[in-house]
Design goal:
The structure is a single chain. Helices cover 37% and strands 16% of the residues. It is built from six helices and seven strands, in the order ααββαβαβαβαββ. A three-stranded parallel β-sheet has the order 4-3-5. A two-stranded antiparallel sheet has the order 1-2. A hairpin with a 5-residue loop joins strand 1 and strand 2. The radius of gyration is 17 Å and the shape is globular.
């Protein structure tokens, strides 16, 4: 009953893996790319913006590149980027790949970042140097195409108990603590 009410409030059917009644994050995102292609998806404080179509194009490049690196469902990817738009591109690419994103604050001391990466069990790091190389390549430094997950078999997508992101506490009383956010926690948000 609560899921039906939430579905009505969100304005769309909510189907998710494992027989539950929530649409996967990947499915919602792919639908948004199609339905809102010309609308603004992101606008930064400095007025820079990106449409859903532009976001899809940029994340296609990242998805292709990440796929060639072996990143896929459940891979933990640390993202340490100064550019807000590039950071969002990488987060969305991780979401589309069903990978787990682990955002790091560029202002954090390097030793503390390494500790956070170990704590989160990250397998891959996207930093400014790597992002510049991938962005400057016409095809994401290779020729693979991004996986189309819009009509994917539900078993290929992340389930509602699978991790979506790992965020850290501030560490004001010691080392920052990793907090795992499952897919199910983000379903109250709209694109």
């Amino acid at each position: 009953r609560a899921r039906r009410a939430l579905s009505a409030w969100m304005g769309h059917s909510m189907e998710m893996t494992g027989g539950s009644s929530i649409e996967s994050v990947v499915q919602v995102l792919e639908r948004a790319f199609s339905q809102y292609a010309r609308e603004t998806a992101i606008e930064t404080a400095d007025g820079t913006s990106m449409t859903y179509s532009e976001l899809r194009e940029r994340t296609d490049k990242w998805c292709a590149w990440l796929s060639r690196q072996g990143v896929g469902k459940g891979t933990r990817v640390a993202i340490d980027l100064a550019s807000p738009l590039r950071c969002i591109e990488c987060i969305v690419a991780c979401v589309r790949m069903c990978a787990v994103y682990v955002p790091l604050d560029p202002a954090t001391q390097p030793d503390r970042k390494r500790t956070m990466q170990r704590s989160a069990g990250t397998e891959f790091l996207i930093d400014d140097e790597l992002a510049a190389r991938v962005a400057s390549s016409p095809d994401g430094a290779g020729d693979a195409t991004a996986p189309d997950r819009s009509g994917s078999d539900a078993s290929e997508l992340a389930g509602e108990d699978d991790p979506f992101a790992i965020l850290f506490t501030s560490g004001s009383t010691g080392d920052p603590k990793a907090v795992v956010f499952p897919q199910s926690l983000i379903h109250n948000y709209r694109l």
